[in-house]
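TL;DR need structure tokens for one chain.
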Amino acid sequence: MNTPDRPYRHEFKYLVTDPLRVLLYNRLVNILPLDTHAGPDGGYAIRSLYFDDPANTCYHQNEDGVDPRRKYRIRIYNASDSRITLECKRKERGMTRKTASPLTKSQALSLIGGVPPPLVRPGREQATLVEFLAVMMQRSMRPVTIVEYRRTAFVHPAGNVRVTFDTDIVASRDFGNFFAPSPLVRPVLPPGTHLIEIKFDHYLPDFIYSLLQTGQLQQTAFSKFYLSRKINI
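>> reply
TL;DR here they are.
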């Protein structure tokens, strides 16, 4: 359901090489602010552990473009356990919606190990976890891939815009070291290839649209989850 506090959002993805990434970054860096999670170098690391069932339903639904569909993941930032979330990302009619529940490290480790954890903070904020626990038991969901990358995100309040630059995208099946500083990984994309995502609620302001015009961007259905699974299946 599309609610005012959690609306479905437009999300457009583009694969870019280094020259185009640098061109767009230089256009945006003096116009749009970085998001509040930016580190001293302007970016931060994202690591997500995705789940799927033994039939690889999420993978095949992504491959076939099934609509609607959803994926579940545990996400951390900068390899730290200070902020852990279980997220559900839904896609419907070309738009996306994300809901999340906070996790303790103990809860996250239980989920990674295939054991339903107790609810330590019952209430609305645990709704995504409750939903996932039902799916986990019904479909025998288990960890299937880790995706990690470096993100720089520009934001603007009009349209709730986020323009993200994701670089150094790698995948791993080293689930036991999800919270380790450096799990074993392998690249998902060729060297010098990166992902730009443009996300907004109802509209993209004209001045941001103009900044992004290069005549070289070609929209893609790229999925970090899908490609990371493809190289491991």
